[in-house]
Write a structure and sequence with these properties.
It is built from eight helices and eleven strands. By secondary structure, it is α+β, with helices and mostly antiparallel strands.
């Protein structure tokens, strides 16, 4: 999405064919007629500032959201008031689908940076799923991925040590960006060290220490929030994952949509 596409009001008045999401719709199985239908239902008028809440836990389910640019974190609150990060979400991913069952959002979503989103109302989304079989099929695929993601997260937290968890986290982000034709080795980490540690179940100080060690050993380079993965092969070995320079692997520990 071009910078000119975002107006000061936050409204983006362009068609799906001119949006970065259009290329993401094609792998979903949408043909040109389907994307015309999608264009009729989708509203592009939200620009979130860093720290702005998209929706809160318990709120009535009103919309499904797609990230066009930027990033979002989702989290829940424990009974004693602590926060638990449940996912980090990047362009092309959907938010709010887990509210379909109870018709209320079961987590909170907050922008990690200036973030542009598309939205489709709950009623329109259900109509779109009924009218476009390819959308329904994609929904089933996403649900299947979510099951695998949950299994991967259980493995990550239950079997891997801190160093292995962080390496797995970086590789997961790498694959997700690669799937969207972004660089798999250079991207921004807009989540804080504290949030990364919260999500991975390790202390913030441990996250910083491992990042420093990875950087000293030449596997990564960090400049503020920008990170370069210099050695995916070594990171894969640390994460105990098979290394392939070309294989398109679905990331396990990060959610495709909010839980």
């Amino acid at each position: 999405m071009s910078r000119q596409a975002v107006q000061e009001s936050g409204c983006v008045e362009i068609s799906c064919q001119n949006c970065g999401l259009y290329q993401l719709c094609l792998p979903m199985g949408l043909d040109s007629a389907d994307t015309t239908l999608l264009d009729r239902y989708v509203k592009r008028k939200r620009l979130l500032k860093r720290g702005e809440v998209l929706y809160r836990i318990g709120e009535k389910f009103t919309c499904v959201y797609a990230i066009r640019s930027g990033s979002v974190k989702t989290y829940v609150s424990t009974d004693d008031g602590r926060l638990q990060i449940t996912g980090f979400h990047v362009p092309g991913e959907l938010l709010g689908l887990s509210a379909l069952d109870e018709k209320r959002y079961n987590c909170e979503a907050v922008a990690l940076e200036t973030t542009s989103i598309c939205e489709i109302s709950a009623g329109c989304f259900e109509e779109l799923v009924r009218e476009v079989p390819s959308v329904h099929y994609q929904m089933l695929r996403m649900m299947s991925r979510e099951i695998r993601h949950n299994q991967g997260l259980m493995l990550l937290l239950g079997r891997k040590n801190a160093e292995e968890r962080l390496a797995t986290f970086l590789l997961s982000l790498s694959r997700r960006f690669a799937l969207r034709n972004y660089s798999p080795t250079q991207f921004n980490l807009n989540m804080s060290r504290s949030d990364i540690g919260n999500y991975l179940g390790i202390a913030e100080e441990t996250v910083s220490r491992i990042f420093t060690r990875f950087q000293e050993e030449g596997m990564i380079a960090i400049e503020r929030r920008h990170i370069i993965l210099n050695d995916l092969k070594r990171l894969s070995a640390i994460a105990r994952e098979p290394y392939s320079a070309t294989a398109q692997v679905i990331p396990l520990p990060l959610t495709q949509y909010s839980r």
